[in-house]
Amino acid sequence: MAYTTKKSLLEAICRGDEISWHEFYGTYRPLIVVRGRDYKLSDTEINELVQAVMLRFFNRSKTFLYDRSRGKFRDYLGVMIYHCALNIIRQRPRNEVGYDGIEILEPENDQDRWRREWQLHILSMAMKQLKLRLEDSTFQAFELYAVQGEDPAVVARFLRIPVGMVYVAKSRALALLRKIVRELQEEE
Q1: Is residue 184 part of a domain?
Q2: Tally of structural domains, the chain
Q3: What is the SS3 string spanning the chain?
Q4: Residues 34-58: pLDDT tens digits?
Q5: Does the residue 15 lie in any domain?
Q6: Is this prediction's pTM over 0.70?
Q7: More confident site: 123 or 110
Q8: What is the pLDDT of residue 182?
Q9: Residue 4 lies in a domain
């Protein structure tokens, strides 16, 4: 299963395919939640943001045509999240704490932040795919040594493998991770 928004996934959504909607929701909900926190929304408002973005895209999906020449889907989604968040903030009562003091990012700064969030999102999806593509012991060695920074000798003892295999696991996993990230970025 792919974790990015491929043209085929968008087309399936436009046809009303429920499985594709489930995949789309599962993929983008965490990203929308992070953006809601960036905009300092409450938990209730973040849930409202997720629903607003999904509903807006659902309503537009009936006529949505993905045209790569007009831009990337991630930028389209980012703008949609931004406007939905603004609408939620504007609906706050004027005397509510946070109404006047909310710091909405300027569009250029917001786009920079959105791109960083998107890159983290891609990395997270790549790590999930990496875990599926590697043997458990190889992934564990990579995660413990390269991601968590554990000493290679400690990792080797814990996994009951030679220290050299920890280094090999890191090398193989990094090469595959780079490949997965490239694939995901090409799909977007």
Answers
A1: no
A2: 1
A3: CCCCCCHHHHHHHHCCCHHHHHHHHHHHHHHHHHHHHHCCCCHHHHHHHHHHHHHHHHHHHCCCCCCHHHCCHHHHHHHHHHHHHHHHHHCCCCCCCCCCCCCCCCHHHHHHHHHHHHHHHHHHHHHHHHHHHCCHHHHHHHHHHHHCCCCHHHHHHHHCCCHHHHHHHHHHHHHHHHHHHHHHHHHC
A4: 889 888 899 999 999 999 999 898 8
A5: yes
A6: no
A7: 123
A8: 86
A9: yes
